[in-house]
Specification:
CATH class of the largest domain: Mainly Beta
Radius of gyration: 31 Å
CATH superfamily of the largest domain: Exo-inulinase, domain 1
Length: 322
């Protein structure tokens, strides 16, 4: 065998030994078997810089030093940790939302968006002592500090807002501080409540975007299977600036509770949905547009007791604003 061949064989042996050595060393490298962390939700669902928030999920490290929490690219320290929850203080960000991630034990989670524009919630479930029927002349108003009785009589009965007075067209408004039902320019509102209306042609309904004069507003009202979407003019009830809908819908009936939800994110455009809370079935789902809309304002409740006596109940009032 020539000298040249010996040299080639020797080089191959060295390369083979090197490769075998690399494979052996690779097998000795540590393997990260930690599960991948996952963000499921935030509590609260949205918040502002400086607020305390809990990141809920799974596979976080119970060792605080093994978690790296980022809001966009800003690392924030954990206030408390467990394998399913990490509490942090939101950093000083000027954006309207942030992508949140958690790296635990070297594994990075999914990115979940957190809204940094706080949603204001106003609610009343009327779960308090009964109050006999009163009008606006009773001061202070025993129905609730934030409620203004404009016309007619209202009571609290069985943890519900109620009226049993016939022959009157009446309404009350929710004038709590900070309530301003704006829509558009990153603002929106969602208004919902449960309503039960007795028969005899009696109307019950919900008011929204009521202006300061207590006369101009939108009104959704029902009587039996009839649903009307109305807009009042400068003279209030009876001065209909627009009859936006008057139609009949199966699924509504006398003395049956229904749930109404009104949503708007654009001035003059809103969606109204009526559902059966017992079956969650949709009774009505319509969108409306008003070229000359009422903006801002407050919500409220309405009844027109054609029958005497009448039984109309309102419950689970909720208004969300952003």
């Amino acid at each position: 065998m020539s000298v040249k061949n010996y040299i080639i064989i020797a080089l191959l042996a060295v390369v083979t030994a090197g490769v075998g050595g690399c494979n052996k060393n690779d097998n000795n490298l540590p393997v990260n078997n930690a599960p991948i962390p996952r963000i499921l939700q935030f509590e609260p669902e949205n918040a502002a810089p400086g607020d305390l928030i809990t990141i809920k999920g799974m596979n976080f490290s119970p060792d605080a030093e093994k978690n790296i929490i980022k809001f966009n690219q800003i690392v924030v320290p954990a206030q408390s940790v467990s394998d399913t929850a990490i509490t942090v203080i939101i950093p000083d960000l000027t954006v309207k939302s942030a992508g949140v991630t958690v790296r635990s034990n070297g594994k990075i989670s999914n990115k979940k968006s957190l809204s940094l524009v706080k949603i204001k919630k106003f609610r009343d479930d009327f779960d308090r002592a009964d109050v006999s029927s009163v009008n606006k002349n009773v001061v202070p108003n025993p129905i609730g500090d934030d409620w203004e009785i404009v016309k007619g009589r209202f009571a609290l009965e069985g943890n519900r807002l109620a009226t049993n007075v016939g022959g009157l067209e009446s309404y009350m408004l929710y004038r709590a501080p900070e309530v301003d039902m704006k829509a558009g320019n990153d603002s929106y509102f969602t208004l919902s409540a449960d309503i039960t209306v007795s028969g005899g042609g009696t109307f019950g309904g919900i008011i929204f975007n009521a202006q300061e004069d207590n006369k101009r507003f939108y009104l959704l009202r029902t009587a039996g299977t009839l649903v009307q979407m109305l807009k009042t003019g400068a003279n209030g009830l009876g001065d209909w600036a627009a009859i936006m809908m008057s139609d009949y819908f199966e699924g509504l009936s006398d003395d049956k509770k229904y749930h109404v939800e009104i949503v708007s994110s654009t001035a003059g455009k809103f969606t109204v949905k009526i559902t059966d809370p017992d079956s969650n079935s949709i009774i009505m789902d319509r969108s409306f547009t008003d070229p000359d809309p009422y903006m801002g304002g407050v919500p409220g409740f309405y009844y027109f007791g054609l029958a005497n006596p009448t039984n109309i109940y309102f419950d689970n009032f909720l208004l969300e604003l952003q």
